[in-house]
UniProtKB/TrEMBL annotation:
SUPFAM superfamilies cross-referenced by the UniProt entry: NAD(P)-binding Rossmann-fold domains (SSF51735)
Organism encoding this protein: Aciditerrimonas ferrireducens
Family: Belongs to the short-chain dehydrogenases/reductases (SDR) family.
Domain of life per record: Bacteria
PROSITE patterns the record matches: ADH_SHORT
Protein name, as recorded: SDR family NAD(P)-dependent oxidoreductase
Length: 255
């Protein structure tokens, strides 16, 4: 895909993996719409990056907010990339220590954010991309969704989170097949342990221990490495319908 002059929408783009993606795409000349509930953080990043970054404040679980973000990214007719990084985790076992069942509202919240949010942006972005003129190789766009190694190596307490990320994995191939007719590729990245604001809440000693659990290199992943992979996916047209683990070789233990 030719990136210079293209535009992208990145959910959760104000921090973590999303911010790493925005920085990597802007460095390639891509105009990025940062779509995030954290408007202050999104605007700070946009101010840092200059004219190629703009902001839509909103919630991926609200279809109308997703449409606003896609519409802004599509202005000028060059929406080529959508990256879904918005999401969060949850800790809760199937039954609690008192043998009461997992909270349904918590389970539903994680599915709404991680699965429905991904669906909302993917479908709307693909609809906009399908209306664009194809590039020379017939390609119109790329959707990158974010799963997690928890989709495969779910730990104790990750019932809701693993279910949501497993759903993102399962959407990958049918979405790629559906969109192949209009020249849109769909790929999912399954990150391992990354240095994001979520892990930033942990004590430094615990963060170091998590890094040492990675096969190699023995550290937490850098969001810039996630962004670099997104750029490569955009530039390599033969990657499609695949789930790629970006995890330093880690296989998560039960806890």
């Amino acid at each position: 895909m030719e990136l210079t002059g293209a535009s992208a929408v990145v959910t959760g783009g104000a921090s973590g993996l999303g911010a790493g993606t925005v920085r990597a795409l802007v460095a390639q000349g891509v105009r990025c719409t940062i779509f995030d509930r954290n408007e202050q953080g999104a605007r700070a990043l946009a101010d840092e990056l200059g004219s190629l970054a703009n902001v839509v404040a909103g919630d991926v679980t609200k279809p109308e907010d997703c449409q606003r973000a896609v519409d802004q990214a599509a202005e000028g007719g060059q929406l080529r990339i959508a990256v879904n990084c918005a999401g969060t985790g949850w800790v809760g076992r199937v039954i609690n220590k008192d043998n009461s069942p997992h909270d349904l509202d918590a389970f539903r919240f994680i599915q709404e954010l991680n699965v429905i949010g991904t669906f909302n942006v993917m479908t709307r972005a693909a609809s906009a991309m399908a209306k664009q003129e194809p590039q020379a190789n017939g390609e119109r766009g790329l959707v990158v969704n974010t799963a997690s190694v928890a989709a495969f190596d779910g730990q104790i307490g990750q019932l809701a989170y693993s279910a949501s990320k497993g759903a993102v994995v399962a959407m990958t191939l049918p979405a790629a097949r559906d969109l192949s007719v209009v020249g849109i590729r769909v790929i999912t990245i399954a990150p391992g342990l990354f240095d994001t604001p979520l892990l930033g809440l942990l004590p430094e000693e615990q963060r170091q221990a998590l890094g040492q659990s990675v096969l190699f290199p023995k550290r937490l992943g850098d969001p810039a490495e996630y962004g670099a992979l997104v750029v490569h996916l955009a530039q390599n047209p033969y990657l499609n319908g695949e789930v790629i683990r970006l995890d330093g070789g880690i296989r998560m233990p039960p806890k």
